[in-house]
Amino acid sequence: MIDYTFISILLYFALMLGIGFYAMRHSTADNNEYLLGGRNVSPKVTALSAGASDMSGWMLMGLPGAAFVSGLDSAWLAVGLLIGAYVNYILVAPRLRVYTELADDSLTIPEFFSKRFSLNNSSVRIVASAVIIFFFTLYTSSGLVAGGKLFESGFDMAYQTGVLVTVSVVILYTVLGGFLAVSMTDFVQGCIMFIALIMVPLFAMGELDGLGQITETITSDFGNQVAAKDALGWLGVLSLMTWGLGYFGQPHIIVRFMAIRSHKEVKIAKRIGMSWMTVTIIGAVLTGIVGFYYASQTGMQVDDPETIFVLLSQILFHPLIAGWLLAAILAAIMSTVSSQLLVSSSSLVEDIYRVFINKEASEKELLFTSRLCVVIVAAVATAISMDSTSGVLDIVSSAWAGFGAAFGPVVLFALLWKRMTNEGAIAGVLSGAVTVIFWKYAPVLADDKALGSVFYELLPGFIISSIAIYVVSTLTTPPSDETEAVFNKTQTTLDG
């Protein structure tokens, strides 16, 4: 018997690898092209690449799983993300595109932090690189966990084998084609995710007579289940909505803004990106809620809520179509993992190898080292992800908060406040990262629970980082005239 689902996955893999070979022939002449696509990416590719690299496996597994368990409470997280993404396009995207080019053509976020102060090898560059490598290794492992769960639930494959299959394909097209391959595959993957998150909840609702019965069930069976717990409350709502603050500090997302053809095309990217994101987030939440309704009415067994999208795809559609829907999960996973691997590699090469190990490295050597670092980071993340009991959303939440608190305030201050100093930036990165780790893991409450069990660690980290930047910057020597001149030129370019 022909396994149509598996054939669909193989065709998807072939498409991704084909894009990798195409990108290798057209955009890997040097490290600038390999890491940023020569700053010549179209707005539509920028928008869907930013969205797809943002909405990793948690979009089709973690968020539907949260909605399956907590219902409409999870919608507050979606609202916070939408607001954060919109403000990111307004405040960060155009300024970062212009500023990174004027700041001696910075290729990485740590390099920009350094050259923002007219310094090549400042300490903030090293600190930021260390944070990127630490949190991205953790973040990448979350995507591989999702890949392992997908192959385990969708193809009855061993979890560890699924992890290895996922990471192998990602490594191949990322190593081959670099940023252009990652961006182009993200565009294709974003289109697949968009269609999938419309089809699955709509077909499930159509199978069970639509919204009327769903609403009735939510207010009865599902409503009683949720009501048995404590109400979410304003603190819980605020905790979920603060996820939106994380956007300002996610290197794998904001690096897309650095690569767009022109800052004048950011508005086009914003319209495309926000439309895509609104539809997909609503679809993800509906998938979880409708999935709970479907399971309660049909008796479908759901051992792991994070696999509800997989189960609905297999039950509702022909295996050939189900294969492409499962490919949507792979798309979400791979788009984020590849972006994170590339950013980690760029930081290792441009901010550490090129600065401290071999300052005279040729472009050919840098290109080879970048590809090698992709493989190394992937190997470490794979080792971490071998624990099949890991929760996708839990791992993502830790890394998201870490980047949001460590880099978010520094990015905003760097782009909007000329008085920020190198010392202030270091204080912001360190205080944000340390606060998140303490808030998440320190057993300071009753029963050895951490503060993160009460309130999401991103907002406390963000606030403390912002205070540290302001206080330390005002107490240290102001930036040089050269630094102020580049800041002013950036604003003049934006105004023009």
From TrEMBL:
<keyword id="KW-0997">Cell inner membrane</keyword>
<feature type="transmembrane region" description="Helical">
    <location>
        <begin position="6"/>
        <end position="24"/>
    </location>
</feature>
<feature type="transmembrane region" description="Helical">
    <location>
        <begin position="231"/>
        <end position="255"/>
    </location>
</feature>
<dbReference type="Pfam" id="PF00474">
    <property type="entry name" value="SSF"/>
</dbReference>
<dbReference type="InterPro" id="IPR050277">
    <property type="entry name" value="Sodium:Solute_Symporter"/>
</dbReference>
<keyword id="KW-0813">Transport</keyword>
<keyword id="KW-0739">Sodium transport</keyword>
<dbReference type="GO" id="GO:0005886">
    <property type="term" value="C:plasma membrane"/>
</dbReference>
<feature type="transmembrane region" description="Helical">
    <location>
        <begin position="124"/>
        <end position="145"/>
    </location>
</feature>
<dbReference type="GO" id="GO:0005298">
    <property type="term" value="F:proline:sodium symporter activity"/>
</dbReference>
<feature type="transmembrane region" description="Helical">
    <location>
        <begin position="454"/>
        <end position="472"/>
    </location>
</feature>
<feature type="transmembrane region" description="Helical">
    <location>
        <begin position="366"/>
        <end position="386"/>
    </location>
</feature>
<feature type="transmembrane region" description="Helical">
    <location>
        <begin position="187"/>
        <end position="206"/>
    </location>
</feature>
<keyword id="KW-0915">Sodium</keyword>
<feature type="transmembrane region" description="Helical">
    <location>
        <begin position="315"/>
        <end position="337"/>
    </location>
</feature>
<protein>
    <recommendedName>
        <fullName>Sodium/proline symporter</fullName>
    </recommendedName>
</protein>
<keyword id="KW-1003">Cell membrane</keyword>
<feature type="transmembrane region" description="Helical">
    <location>
        <begin position="157"/>
        <end position="180"/>
    </location>
</feature>
<feature type="transmembrane region" description="Helical">
    <location>
        <begin position="276"/>
        <end position="295"/>
    </location>
</feature>
<feature type="transmembrane region" description="Helical">
    <location>
        <begin position="424"/>
        <end position="442"/>
    </location>
</feature>
<dbReference type="InterPro" id="IPR011851">
    <property type="entry name" value="Na/Pro_symporter"/>
</dbReference>
<dbReference type="GO" id="GO:0031402">
    <property type="term" value="F:sodium ion binding"/>
</dbReference>
<comment type="function">
    <text>Catalyzes the sodium-dependent uptake of extracellular L-proline.</text>
</comment>
<keyword id="KW-1133">Transmembrane helix</keyword>
<dbReference type="GO" id="GO:0015824">
    <property type="term" value="P:proline transport"/>
</dbReference>
<comment type="similarity">
    <text>Belongs to the sodium:solute symporter (SSF) (TC 2.A.21) family.</text>
</comment>
<keyword id="KW-0029">Amino-acid transport</keyword>
<dbReference type="InterPro" id="IPR038377">
    <property type="entry name" value="Na/Glc_symporter_sf"/>
</dbReference>
<keyword id="KW-0769">Symport</keyword>
<dbReference type="InterPro" id="IPR001734">
    <property type="entry name" value="Na/solute_symporter"/>
</dbReference>
<dbReference type="GO" id="GO:0015193">
    <property type="term" value="F:L-proline transmembrane transporter activity"/>
</dbReference>
<feature type="transmembrane region" description="Helical">
    <location>
        <begin position="398"/>
        <end position="417"/>
    </location>
</feature>
<feature type="transmembrane region" description="Helical">
    <location>
        <begin position="75"/>
        <end position="92"/>
    </location>
</feature>
<keyword id="KW-0472">Membrane</keyword>
<keyword id="KW-0406">Ion transport</keyword>
<keyword id="KW-0812">Transmembrane</keyword>
